[in-house]
Amino acid sequence: MLSSDLSLYFVSAVTNKRIGFLNLSPDEVIRSLFYNKNNDSLITVSVYASDNFSTLKCRTTPVEYIRRNQLDAGFPLFESESLKWPGFVEFDDVNGKVLTYSAQDGIYKVFDLKNYYFLYSIPDENVQEIKISPGIMLLIYDRTPSYVPLKILSIEDGKQLKFFKHLLHRNKKIDFIEQFNEKLLVKQEDENFQILDVRSSELIEVNVSKFMTPSAFIFLYENNLFLTFRNRTVAVWNFRGDLVTSFEDHLLWHHDCSTNNIYITSDQDLIISYCKSEAVAEDGTVGSINMSEIMTGKCIAKITANDPALSAPPRRNGRSKRRSSVWSTVPEALEDVTALFYDEDRNEIYTGNSHGLVHVWSN
């Protein structure tokens, strides 16, 4: 979240030069940023103090105009939609769509991410949640005691592809329902994990002692696998319910799996995460950055505070030799990391911490 009274700068990944900035008004708080690769623009989602921070406002600004510092060339998005809480907007980069929800009107709407044209709407008639996968949307309706109604729609035109009822154990809460292509993943409290093929109706069950409810998922579309996160540990599963990989040295920093601190490479062969560090176990605030192979679980590289090969720019008269009055030691740079990104083209890792500093790790 970016608060008021500051300027937001953008840095070119190619030149590392500042290409422009957005001046935030004292009234504005940016909730999220989204880079739209379809039209090379930056979308900001903001709330405002004058509205008691209750309504989302979206704006798109072409990156070319950010470079020229012509920020007024941008324009607002979805002005016709009431995005007052608990309304929301979700950007789907995989399908090139935008999903909005107006709680006031009780309607979901889908827009084209390329040109923001309205495509179709979905009435909120007891829809509890919507899950988006490549090519399809799963609508999860309010459950009955013995089943949950589910509907699968085409993401392109909203046409119904299938409607069915998934049977449930009475009086047991649903831990999660997830959708991955034609696979439906369902888990109820203290019950077996179920993998249902919605096209063939084939059902696979995994014993509750083998698969316990994770706190988060990441689906690996290229490999037809999925990652689970539970109690700081990561595991890889296939859709037959088999455990594929356990990681030997990848204990995550956060209990609740903050995906801001996790990066999966585009080939989906490596996972890079902010982890607990054995090297500085006595210091509860400094972690490490671990890189592991997804298919083998082996840790192949690690950035730690006591690595003698690492060095920060030396200070000169209390400052770094670089043009900045802000400097960090390696342990300070690894303290309370809140965001992590890996530039695969430049082989550089970017981390941000709770002090608002961004660090670049490069060899």
Automatic annotation (TrEMBL):
Q: Which InterPro entries match?
A: DUF7899 (IPR057221), WD40/YVTN_repeat-like_dom_sf (IPR015943)
Q: What domain of life does the native source organism fall in?
A: Eukaryota
Protein name as it appears in the record: Transducin/WD40 repeat-like superfamily protein
- The organism named in the record is Zea mays
Q: Which taxonomic lineage is given here?
A: Eukaryota, Viridiplantae, Streptophyta, Embryophyta, Tracheophyta
